[in-house]
Amino acid sequence: MRKIIADSSANLLSLSGAAFQSIPMVIHAGERDFLDDARLDTGDMMDYLSTFKGRSGTACPGPDGWMNAFAGADEIFVVTITSGLSGTYGSAMAAKDLYEQVHPKVKIHVFDSLSTGPEMQLLIEKLASLLDTDLSFEEIRDAGEAYLRSTRMFFSLQSLHNLAQNGRVNKLVAGAIGILNIRILATASPEGTIAPVEKCRGEKKAQNAMAAKMLEAGYKGGKVRIHHAENPETAQAVKAALLEKFPAADIEIGTCRGLCSYYAERGGVLTAFETA
Fold first, then answer.
1. How buried is residue 242: exposed, middle or buried, by Cβ count under 10 Å (0-12/13-18/19+)?
2. Are 125 and 182 in a shared domain?
3. Structural domain boundaries, residue 124
4. Nearest to 11, CA basis, from 116, 164, 161
């Protein structure tokens, strides 16, 4: 059996037409832990965090969580959040090494997405389309790695508080966002870190800037996946702007689950797309 496994930052709980499992991350806030699984109420979590004054953070799945998910499959494709901002890739690699020692016939490949959320979804969908083909494990692996090099992501955030608190962005940069209706437009760098692109005053300017930057980065009407943290208006506006230029484009909108909602915070929008 072939199987796809991803950590919960992919914002996917299930996948049509393929064996799939999501491994939950954990969000810590004082004495409360939020497990990023199907039972999590992300709105409740964000409400709690909006008034929480202490330190919060996240934890990646341990190797045991990954190895439990490996059970029963012969060929496994794992997709993780960027290693540039999380230890999740390292945890999955440790699990792979341990599992292959006991199950030498099982094949496992771990993709470091160098991104999160919708860009992970694009790769997962690509892998799912290849599982039922005659392609070998190695051919699917190589096709997945090549596909990753043909996708990009931009995101618009109105707060960088949680990213700064956990050392993901500079606190001085974070301090300027959210003041006077300033949003930041950023992208995932080639190293899988956060690369600010520009500051935008107001939601409308951020929407226009995101669509413009996508075109500059090589978007030509391919797949787009948009994830938002309680901001469907901006997600729909970006979709509409792209459909104006590419009426036949495959564009889907989804919601951020726990991990992405924690870092994107309320109002955040992440847009991933194919460039080839």
1. buried
2. no
3. 2-25+60-148
4. 116
CA distance 36 to 57: 13
- The region that residue 52 occupies, defined by phi over 0 for left and psi between -120 and 50 for alpha, beta otherwise, is beta
List, for residues 13-61, the tens digit of each pLDDT value: 999 999 999 999 999 999 999 999 999 999 999 999 999 988 999 999 9
Neighbours of 179 (CB within 10 A): 7
Residue 140 shares a structural domain with residue 157: no
Going by DSSP bridges, is the β-strand pair 151-157/107-112 parallel, antiparallel, or unpaired? unpaired
Instruction: Write down the pTM of the prediction.
Output: 0.94
pLDDT-derived band at 201, boundaries 50, 70, 90: confident
